[in-house]
Amino acid sequence: MKSKNNSFRKDSRKPTEKREGKKDSRKPAEKREFKKDSRKPTEKREFKKDSRKPTEKRVFEKDSRKPTEKRVFKKDFEKPSPRTSRPKSLDMEERPKKDFRKEAPAKVRNFREKKELFIWGKRTVESYFANLHSQENLVVANYSLHIIVDKAAKAPAQLKPIVESAKALGIKIMSHTSAENEWPLADSVDLNHQRVCLKIPEYPVSQLSDVLSLLKTKVENSEHGCLGLVLDQIQDPRNFGAILRSAAYFGVKFVVYATDRQSDISGLVLKTSAGGAFSLMLVPVVNINRALAQLKEAGAWIIGATLQEKSVEFKQLPKDRNWILVLGNEEKGLRTEVTKNCDYLVKIPGCDGGGVESLNVSVAAGVCMHALQP
Fold first, then answer.
1. Helix or strand or coil: residue 174?
2. Closest to 200 in 3D by CA, of 169, 176, 177
3. DSSP of 77-110, one letter per residue?
4. Which of 104, 128, 140, 363 is most buried, most CB within 10 Å of its CB?
């Protein structure tokens, strides 16, 4: 056991020596003596008195003009002015008050200007005349038939049915010796007019309300299949006409198309349709998405043709539906907002390694309408 003695040993270290500081060997700083300023004191500036003469006080003369007389406006119109002398019957107090809101006729604003069209081709003109025979209150003055006669100044044999239909309707017939002699289509050299063309007024279009009423009756009668088309910015007039031809072949009732960035109805469209456009209800609308929503409310099912990944094949679609097919632009296809308003998205299956990813929109329209037949 260790002892519990807590005594400390003495410090064996030597005490430190006292250090004596050395004196500062530096010399004391000399006192600086500043010299007096050798510059001369500045002279006091004495400003001269202003030698200019004081300005004279201006005394304004009184205005010699006569004061203007106060005008007193008379309230009555008994003394008319010599410039505008009116009889008492036209006095302001005696004029009868008119209600212009009731008397002014309501002005209807036309968003689409009326324009004349020329349709050409034997089959196209014959189909148009067939529809004219069923119309009532026909204004014959708006139509004129132009034909190129032969050397004997007679109509060719293939055009005699058209000439007889024009005579039966009372339409004016104008003969031409060649395609250069005041021929309406002289500027268009590449057109296959077949020596006949017809001037018509603006092509009659239908309203969306007429389509909705027709669609409700079709839904009530349980008529399935493709009932109509909706075109989303089809810009090529030949594609537009080919789609109308296929639609008429498969029994489609109407075609809805946009007024913006869309090919309008023209002579080339009607010629390409080969008369199929005359059996369809053509409906121009401002907003495609709004039209799709109204068609849905009428009982139709919207189907869009696109190459997206979520698209299905036609085999997977139910058969007992009233379909409306939506076709998109030739390059961009359907817009995103339009696809959101579709109930189904479908695609046409092709062969792998064929080298072509898609079909022309007019060809795809025919394939889709055939697949949607009940």
1. strand
2. 169
3. -SS--SSS---GGG-GGGSPP--HHHHSPPPPPP
4. 128
| Model pLDDT, residue 110 | 43
Q: Would you tell me how many other CB atoms lie within 10 Å of the CB of residue 270?
A: 28
Q: Which amino acid is at 326?
A: V
Task: Using alpha carbons, list the distances in angstroms from residue 146 to 114, 175, 194, 288.
Answer: 21, 6, 11, 38
- Residue written as tokens 């009756």? 217
User: What would the two tokens of residue 184 be?
Assistant: 């309406």
Looking at residue 275, what is its pLDDT? 86
Instruction: Count CB-CB contacts under 10 A for residue 155.
Output: 20
And the tokens for 236? 């090529």
Q: How far apart are CA 120 and CA 145, in angstroms?
A: 10
Which secondary-structure segment (H or E) carries 119?
A: strand 117-120
* Helix (H/G/I), strand (E/B), else coil: 117: strand
pLDDT of residue 99: 45
Q: How many residues does the chain have?
A: 374
pLDDT number for residue 76: 53
Q: Cα(18)–Cα(192) distance, rounded to whole angstroms? A: 131
CB distance 93 to 180 below 8 Å: no
User: What is the structure's pLDDT at 107?
Assistant: 37
The answer to whether the CB of 203 falls within 8 A of the CB of 265 is yes
Cut 0.90: pTM above it? no
Give CA–CA dist 243/362, Å, rounded: 5
First and final C-alpha spacing in the chain:
115
> Which pLDDT does position 365 carry in this prediction?
93
Amino acid at 198: L
The total of other beta-carbon atoms located within 10 Å of residue 251's CB is 13
Judged by DSSP in three states, 256 sits in: strand
| Residue 242 identity | A
Beta bridge partners of 255: 229, 282
Task: Please state the φ and ψ torsions of residue 264, each to the nearest 5 degrees.
Answer: -85, 170
